[in-house]
Design a protein that fits this description.
Layout lengths: L1 H14 L2 H20 L5 H12 L8 H10 L6 H5 L4 H14 L4 H9 L9 H12 L8 H6 L5 H19 L5 H16 L1
Helix pairs in contact: 1-3, 2-3, 2-8, 3-7, 3-8, 4-6, 6-7, 7-8, 8-10, 10-11
């Protein structure tokens, strides 16, 4: 996996626009900090590093290119993704891992696939990348400092407050909300009530 990480580092440096590359590096660094806080080690850390390096591998693509690539990869966009094609960068980016980056690890795939809107059944690595993407130091939005402070509350609690802030933002704008986010939120609430 170390060779995959080195190759991914080189690819994102050469393929991503400068600001997106910097976001990617900050997301990787934040993800690794969170991972260590939550007790990850060894292969988990490597998966988190690789996923965070590749999480936005096609975020800079225009809407039509994302739609076309989804079709070429055999991914059928949801109605919400068709209306907000920028959301597709996570799904398309995950589907590209095997073909374009020679990455076949299912956990890395999952972390890239879910990093934008979340979803039911996310593993710990995917949850960490999901949060790191929203908390990296370059992110500046109302409430982000409070989110960063909540990292000490535990991973699932951090996921909940990240989702809650995102939902408040989207509902305030009257924007569409991907149902996968609601599924993830409900799963976290159920996990909290059981645990």
């Amino acid at each position: 996996m170390k060779a995959d990480i080195q190759r991914a580092t080189e690819l994102v440096a050469s393929q991503l626009p400068a600001e997106l590359y910097l976001h990617t590096v900050r997301t990787r660094d934040t993800a690794l900090e969170l991972a260590k806080r939550y007790g990850c080690e060894g292969r988990e850390l490597q998966r988190i590093e690789l996923a965070s390096l590749l999480h936005d591998n096609c975020k800079h693509w225009q809407a039509q290119r994302l739609l076309d690539e989804a079709k070429a990869l055999g991914y059928e966009p949801t109605e919400i993704e068709q209306r907000v094609p920028a959301l597709l960068h996570a799904r398309v980016g995950a589907h590209r891992l095997r073909r374009d980056f020679s990455v076949t690890d299912g956990i890395v795939y999952s972390a890239v696939y879910y990093h934008t809107v979340g979803g039911r059944g996310m593993c710990r690595e995917a949850r960490i990348v999901f949060c790191a993407d929203k908390l990296e130091p370059g992110r500046e939005y109302e409430g982000v400092e409070e989110l960063r402070a909540r990292a000490t509350d535990g991973l699932n609690e951090l996921c909940l407050v990240v989702i809650a802030l995102g939902l408040n933002y989207l509902t305030g704008k009257g924007a569409l909300i991907d149902t996968a986010t609601l599924d993830f939120y409900n799963e976290l609430i159920l996990e909290r009530s059981v645990g």
